[in-house]
Amino acid sequence: MGSLLLNPERDGDNGELLSATLTHSNGVFEVIFTGNCNKCGEDITNERPGCAALGQTFHVACFTCKQCGRQLAGTSFYKAKGKVLCEQDYRDTVDRCECCGNAVIGRMLRALGRIYHPVCFTCSRCRRCLDGVPFTADSFNHTYCVACFYEKFAPRCAVCSQPIVPEEGEKESVRVVAMNKSFHINCYRCEDCNTILSANVDALG
């Protein structure tokens, strides 16, 4: 049958959603941080309040999106590939899911040279999620769980009509081909005495 069992690759996080905390009271900033701004190196003061992000302190005016310059204090932001980005700019730059077309935020899967949300990577027949489980694909790159692939593509026994699939723990199936038909080894029997004929063939070499 020539099928190849594959496993999706987990790429980890495509970017981590973070937030910059900003302490204030009654609309007036309360500076509770000591030290200097990690970006400009100057003191954080009442006149130039600070925020905490990425385990460091910054002036509110200094902690900005690398792409558009928007201030990020008090908002959600992403750090990806060493850059700090606002949520909108991050979504504009990340990879998109092959299945749904939306931005892949957080964990992604790579399979068949494409990128997917883990929940979008499913069997094209039964829709079972294939995240972390073996799968295979047809010549059109349609993905299948192993059970559905065999159900759809495996040769069927001419006697019992069930698919001929590998035994548990095996990678390849064994069948008897006779009269242009396929048979399970145990189904290929003499019509008169019901003897398993494949056993006789093996015994005779």
UniProtKB/TrEMBL annotation:
Keyword Zinc applies: yes
InterPro entries per UniProt: Znf_LIM (IPR001781)
Gene3D superfamilies: Cysteine Rich Protein
GO annotation, cellular component aspect: focal adhesion; stress fiber
SUPFAM superfamilies: Glucocorticoid receptor-like (DNA-binding domain)
LIM zinc-binding domain span: 35-96, 155-205
Cleavable signal peptide: none
PROSITE patterns, A to Z: LIM_DOMAIN_1 (PS00478), LIM_DOMAIN_2 (PS50023)
Single Gene Ontology MF annotation: metal ion binding
GO biological process, one term: cell-cell adhesion
Highest taxon of source: Eukaryota
SMART domains reported in the protein's UniProt record: LIM (SM00132)
One family name in Pfam for this protein: LIM
Keywords: LIM domain, Metal-binding, Repeat, Zinc
Protein's name in the database: LIM domain protein
Organism of this sequence: Ascaris lumbricoides
